[in-house]
Amino acid sequence: MAHLYFHCTNAHEALRDRAGRDVPSLAEAHREALALARLVMDRVSGLGDFRDWRIHVEDEEGSELMLVPFTFARAELH
Known about the structure:
globular, alpha+beta, 2 helices, five-stranded antiparallel beta sheet
């Protein structure tokens, strides 16, 4: 189990995950990132076009483990 952080960013803005969450595997972290992207796109319309948004999944030391574009979350729905 790893404690990971899911930060949402584009070229101009960043929504930092200050709490993080415990995730049992990288596969689960990827699923969590996709779910977060869908949640943000559904609930935060003021952020505009989401094509440039990404989720940076980091460990407790700040090392990036994966980068998940928001567009991956929409592609999964089709």
